[in-house]
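Continuing the series of single-chain predictions for the mutant panel. This is the parent chain; the variants come on the following pages.
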Amino acid sequence: MDASEIAQGVGHIPSGLFIVVAEGEKQIDGYLASWVQQISFSPLLVSFAINSDRPGYDAITSGKSFSINIVGDHDTQYMRHFWSGYEQSPFSQIEHERFGENAVAINAAKSVIECQFVSKSKPGDHEIVVARVISSKVMNDESKPKVHIRKSGLDY
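Parent structure:
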């Protein structure tokens, strides 16, 4: 089988859509993520994939708390700010609030999870970050998490 045939089934693995947000020294940054997963009950841990050039990477791995905003099916308009990167932080255009120690909750999200960096590894072209869940908040109770299915496991 060639790579495109092998990757077709991988693309069918469903995932959610998330905005991972961290506040650095200069601004609030975030990126659109689709590979987020709970990996432990005790302690409560999640993992997610990130490229080290993504906005907020240094703040996420610094040890300060950050947030994972779960995109709901009720409102996805704010995601467009994170699709292809940006020069200035989009948070001047997105309604948000402080959450926990240092995390940011996007008001239109389904829910938000405050996390703290635990470890990272780089098994392929993305790093896998493991983070401890500190707290969470439901922002839009009636909404369902937005689900994403890719056409292929070779790109987003």
